[in-house]
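Exercise 7b. Backbone tokens:
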């Protein structure tokens, strides 16, 4: 039950919660008793995840179609959450798009603008519209960043730039909102095993070998689970973390420690 963090009667809005890490966060918060609103462009998965979590309880879950790249839709989703649940205690900004890995010469300015609009401006917009409610209920913001904001990543200039922006934005907002009683933290996942990665592995000639290889990037010897990211968010959102604001919580199984690959690079 959520690592001892009771979220009964609390309301949490999660962007990009139709699958992957966002869906893992929704599961953990519903299990801790929260009422969760998933906001995502993917209605099919979002409706499925929300109804299955709602049926299991003990908390509640509902889905609202929302493109975080469109400010009016974000505003409406936040107002809808407060209208139907009466309050807002936590905003988890998580929705993101992932440009294909390639060198900067092959990346267009338009692609950077589109990615920025979802991955970074979308976070800013959701904070802007959620903060009046979060201040009222002394809530918190959790921004899903990435370990790549610290380490960079080969052929991922656009994605890394948006993730670096999230880290800096979170710290600046934490300073600004401290006096209002709203805490703002960033979570930086390393390798997390999501359905998207499972699908990627399934599409490879030797997906099993790729899987085993990626598992060895972590000193802990495996990737994280989406529920483990949810547990970290639940802790940060809870009263147990009431003195924690402005941090970047790295969730990586120590992938970044000790420089370089821990095994020779094989062919796949
Ligand atoms: N999986 C990892 O290993 C990993 C590592 C580091 C950081 N992250 C971060 O975690 C977050 C979730 O990643 P994931 O791996 O679960 O991705 P995912 O692709 O599995 O899920 C992302 C969700 O965001 C939604 N989304 C995309 N564009 C949207 C938009 N405009 N409006 C609303 N929803 C939109 C998608 O429909 C999807 O449901 C992202 O911020 C990502 O950068 C993931």
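Sequence design result:
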């Amino acid at each position: 039950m959520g690592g001892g963090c009771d979220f009964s009667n609390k309301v949490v809005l999660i962007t990009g919660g139709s699958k992957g890490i966002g869906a893992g966060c929704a599961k953990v918060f519903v299990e801790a008793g929260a009422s969760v609103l998933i906001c995502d462009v993917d209605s099919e998965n979002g409706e499925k995840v929300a109804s299955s979590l709602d049926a299991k309880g003990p908390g509640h879950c509902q889905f609202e179609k929302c493109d975080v790249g469109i400010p009016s839709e974000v505003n409406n989703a936040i107002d809808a959450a407060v209208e139907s649940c009466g309050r807002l205690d936590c905003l988890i900004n998580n929705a993101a798009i992932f440009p294909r890995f390639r060198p900067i010469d092959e990346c267009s300015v338009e692609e950077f603008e589109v990615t920025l609009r979802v991955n970074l401006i979308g976070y800013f917009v959701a904070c802007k519209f959620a903060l009046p409610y979060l201040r009222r209920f002394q809530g918190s913001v959790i921004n899903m960043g990435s370990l790549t904001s610290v380490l960079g990543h080969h052929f991922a200039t656009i994605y890394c730039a948006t993730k670096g922006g999230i880290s800096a934005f979170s710290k600046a907002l934490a300073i600004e909102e401290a006096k209002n009683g709203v805490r703002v933290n960033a979570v930086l996942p390393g390798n997390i095993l999501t359905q998207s990665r499972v699908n990627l592995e399934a599409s490879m000639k030797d997906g099993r070998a790729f899987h085993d290889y990626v598992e060895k990037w972590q000193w802990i010897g495996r990737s994280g689970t989406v529920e483990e990211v949810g547990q970290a968010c639940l802790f940060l959102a809870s009263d147990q973390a009431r003195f924690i604001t402005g941090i970047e919580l790295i969730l990586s199984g120590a992938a970044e420690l000790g420089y370089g690959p821990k095994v020779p690079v094989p062919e796949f």
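Instructor comment: Strands lie at 11-15, 35-40, 60-65, 90-93, 140-144, 183-189, 192-193, 224-225, 248-251. Residues 52 and 179 are 39 Å apart (CA to CA).
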